[in-house]
Design goal:
Elements lengths: L2 H8 L7 H16 L5 H9 L20 E4 L2 E3 L2 H11 L6 E5 L5 H8 L3 E6 L2 H13 L5 E4 L12 E6 L8 H6 E12 L4 E10 L2 E10 L13
Parallel strand pairs: 3-4, 3-6, 4-5, 6-7
Antiparallel strand pairs: 1-2, 7-8, 8-9
Helix pairs in contact: 2-3
The structure holds S-adenosylmethionine.
The site of S-adenosylmethionine has 26 residues, from strand 2, helix 5 and strand 4.
């Protein structure tokens, strides 16, 4: 393993102090005030120490409702966005969920807390390795891979739920086909600056219901059915 990667993981403070727990509780109350109503989602967000995903120097930023840089020009999503997408996904224990854009691994940790069997794809090798190491240290063991998530993960399909955590120009066909009948996909779709959150429900192999929700701003989904790098 590269020394810089070891150092950056060691630099993460794996101590959950009262000050962190207090700040997390306040953040979760803020999310509830902003309209997150699913108690299981709020509980998961109360349980996962978000500051573990930050370098110790920046852990004061962990409980502010904002996205934050994680390297490679990418971000850990805003807590409200994580809560919103997770709420729309309506996951149940034991469901098979595919995440596109592992990033820091925070959204993955929230989904695992909710009891799903998580598969997640990240296109940046450095972020993939860092997330794998950190999630393992936290006791989370999703199935992770590094690659272009716009192609989905055909060998592991179908998925009960699919969550895309980067802004897509279109809904990738591969993801539509890898969604199980009765399944839900949540994906931000739009231009590179802003996207509408879209919820897709697969009614049968050929019929999809599309619900267009609120505006968000994600980093771009890059790949064969995404934006160019
Ligand atoms: N879920 C992440 C978290 O909790 O930190 C959010 C990460 S960030 C908003 C979006 C991530 O999607 C970035 O890490 C980016 O590299 C990744 N990404 C973009 N296009 C991708 C693709 N085609 N396949 C897989 N990952 C991709």
């Amino acid at each position: 393993m590269q020394l810089s990667l070891i150092n950056s993981v060691i630099a993460v403070a794996m101590i959950d102090e009262y000050k962190h727990k207090g700040a997390r509780k306040k953040l979760v109350e803020e999310l509830a005030a902003k309209g997150i109503t699913d108690k299981t989602v709020l509980k998961a967000m109360l349980q996962v120490p978000r500051h573990y995903f930050f370098n110790k120097t920046f852990d004061a930023h962990a409980y502010v409702d904002k996205a934050f840089p994680i390297g490679e020009g990418q971000t850990i999503s805003q807590p409200y966005t994580v809560a919103y997408q997770t709420q729309v996904l309506q996951v149940h224990k034991g469901e098979k969920v595919l995440e596109i854009g592992t990033g820091s691994g925070y959204q993955a940790a929230i989904l695992i807390e909710l009891g799903v069997k998580l598969y997640s794809i990240e296109r940046h090798e450095k972020l993939y390795k860092k997330a794998k190491l950190l999630l393992g240290k936290m006791g989370y063991h999703p199935t992770l891979t590094c690659g272009d998530g716009t192609k989905g993960w055909p060998e592991m399909a179908p998925f009960d739920k699919i969550i895309v955590t980067a802004g897509a120009p279109v809904i990738p066909k591969a993801l539509m086909s890898q969604l199980a009948v009765g399944g839900i996909m949540v994906i931000p779709v739009g231009n590179e600056a802003t996207q509408k959150m879209v919820c897709i429900i697969k009614k049968d192999e050929k019929t999809f219901e599309k619900i267009v929700l609120k505006d968000f701003a994600f980093v771009p989904l890059i790949g064969e059915e995404g934006w160019d790098a």
